[in-house]
Amino acid sequence: xxxxGRLAFVTGAGSGIGRATCQILAREGATxxxxxxxxxxxxxxxxxxxxxxxxxxxxxxxxxxxxAGTFFVVQTFxxxxxxxxxTNASIxxxxxxxxxxxxxxxxxxxxxxxxxxxxxxxxxxxxxKKGIRVNAVLPGMILTPMLQAVPDKVKEKFKLSTPxxxxxxPDEVAEVITFLASDKSxxxxxxxxxxxxxx
Length: 199
Hints:
Elements: E1 7-10, H1 16-27, E2 31-36, H2 39-49, E3 57-60, H3 70-83, E4 89-94, H4 98-101, H5 107-127, E5 132-139, H6 145-148, H7 152-160, H8 170-181, E6 192-195
Parallel strand pairs: 1-2, 2-3, 4-5, 5-6
């Protein structure tokens, strides 16, 4: 499942799923550009992967800013990929299972993540003929700083509703992302892969 020789641009790389994705992609041979709104956290991520042979870099990027929303990041990199004549590229967007099923108290979050999933499906149709695959992962309850902010009573309810009876780990999501970035998934595009423990 190696991604040796590939350049990986990872947003949200300062913690959680983003950091784990950087670590696993680097382990598999990719060169990483790690981004997050907090440059100190990015530097910690870079430190954690600099044991590998490749030269990794980091930069500040806040995807909450209008000019760095998901759409513009996909558009910018799709154009760069096409301009450089790369015909075997992969874009992986991070959605959420609540974008598919909704969740009480998360109207804005659910709607934005539903948008990510449909952006992914549409972009895959537009970019496929250019050799760019576009997929999404839809994590469920994953042990990240975001989940830690949820009250224990609510977390326990979610755990009981999950057939596997536990929360997922960032590494489990990152392994799927790495698979989608590799040639092992060469005929997968426009897909939304649920990583939820069956939730």
